[in-house]
Amino acid sequence: MYPHSYGGREFRYQAILPRLAEHVDIHVYTMRWWKGPNVYTENGVTFHAICPLLPMYTKDGRRSIIQGIIFALFCLRLLTRPFDVLDVDQIPYFHVFPLRLIATIRRKPLVATWHEVWGPGAWRDYLKWLGWLGWFVEITCIRLPDHIISASAQTTERLHEFVGEEASITTIPNGIDVAAIAEVPASPHKVDIVTVGRLIEHKRVHVLLDVIASLHARGIYVTARVIGDGPDREALQKQAKALGIDSAVDFCHDIAEQKELYSLIKASRMFISLSTREGFGIAVLEAIACGVPVLTTTAPDNLAQYLATRYSSGFVCGTHTAEIVDATADILSQPDASRSLSADSWIEEYGWEKMVDRIVNIYRPGFIEPVAPTAISKEEEFV
After folding, report:
1. For the chain, which residues make up each domain, given as ranges?
2. Are 62 and 126 in contact (CB under 8 A)?
3. 3: cis peptide before it, omega within 30°?
4. Where are the beta strands (DSSP E) in the chain?
5. Measuring CA to CA, how many Å separate 204 from each of 208, 211, 235, 296, 305?
6. CATH fold of 8-175+351-381, please?
7. Of 339 and 214, which is predicted with more confidence?
8. DSSP codes, 230-261
9. At what angle do helices 65-74 and 96-106 cross, to 10 degrees?
10. Which residues lie closer than 8 Å to 300 by C-beta, 6 or more apart?
11. pTM surpassing 0.85?
């Protein structure tokens, strides 16, 4: 949960929940991220701690299976809690099983918000010979909800690919507050490159550090800011020192609020996202709204590339380090005056109010019982 944890999903819920609270009574059940009473209300949303705070990552940087299983067991407490709709986030999968049971017993609809689909290949890369087990859990969980809210049109396509066209799915992507971002001034602390995201392997911040070192070797002495936190932070800081670029890279993991994040993005000459797996790419969308050039890659599971291709100052290159170095050098060589200084008009499609209205419609009685496959028009795809 934001601000205790940073990421696209956390930012999504931070933005959506207070807006949803204007229409429905929202209760969030989670781990005990905060100090104080187990239950508190903020911005119309009531938060319940049903589980102790457990580490989400193991020492090797992987998501903790033990944490996921323990949280799933604590979710059984919802059997006695009042609700009309049970909306579950897909990660970390295990809790979907008891919540499906509870929704069935209580005869209430189960909605799942799905951010990305890994597929068997990604699970093999992640868990090696145990990859079949990860894929079995994922594909089973995809089949359990009565309705799925998908975070992008591409994720919707992948969901239908694995569970069939008859699956009940609505595409509701992440959004942004365009007006609020426009009002934020750029920070006086300028850098050449900025990246935002959780510091874990598939975000490939380690590759970005190699890119910066290569640029320095070419005589292009760029500076960078890495915004985010995660299990790889210490290793990345050591890598920067070993490459001799630690004085040129600012690791920033204590952002107090979104306005500070936007201010730092605007203070950069370009935004880079090298993640191999993005279910949508909220950080890329925010960078576009900030009006800075964006570079991302053609990694098959990186859905943020579809946002970059719509952007007048968006660039997509191959995944190899040399290709990224060339693309970065080319972008930085362009005069700042020739770049787009504000987001393109299409970004207005991603206003949070539009997203919230569509979620509220899904919650309305009769929408999920059982429903026909949701037809997604080109206008609704948003990408």
Report:
1. 8-175+351-381, 178-345
2. yes
3. yes
4. 26-31, 39-42, 45-51, 86-89, 110-114, 147-150, 169-171, 191-196, 224-227, 249-252, 268-272, 277-278, 294-297, 301-302, 314-317
5. 7, 11, 12, 11, 15
6. Rossmann fold (3.40.50)
7. 214
8. -TTHHHHHHHHHHTT-GGGEEEE----SHHHH
9. 20
10. none
11. no
CB 303 within 8 A of CB 155: yes
| Euclidean distance between CA atoms 60 and 51, whole angstroms | 24
Q: Would you state the structure tokens that stand for residue 76, as one six-digit string?
A: 């059984």
CATH class of the 178-345 domain in this structure? alpha beta
Strand pairing class (39-42; 45-51): antiparallel
Helices 205-217 and 321-333: crossing angle in degrees, nearest 10, is: 60
Q: Angle at CA 56, nearest 5°, toward 158 and 71?
A: 85
User: How far is 377 from 300, CA to CA, in rounded Å?
Assistant: 23
Residue range 226-276, pLDDT digits in tens: 998 888 999 999 999 999 999 999 999 878 788 899 999 999 999 999 999
Tokens 């309305």 belong to residue: 364
The whole-angstrom separation of Cα 105 and Cα 218 is 64
**How many residues are present in the chain?**
383
Q: Nearest-CA neighbor of 313 among 297, 329, 289?
A: 289
Instruction: Tell me: pLDDT of 33 over 80.
Output: yes
Please answer whether residues 228 and 199 qualify as being in contact, where contact means their C-beta atoms are separated by less than 8 angstroms: yes
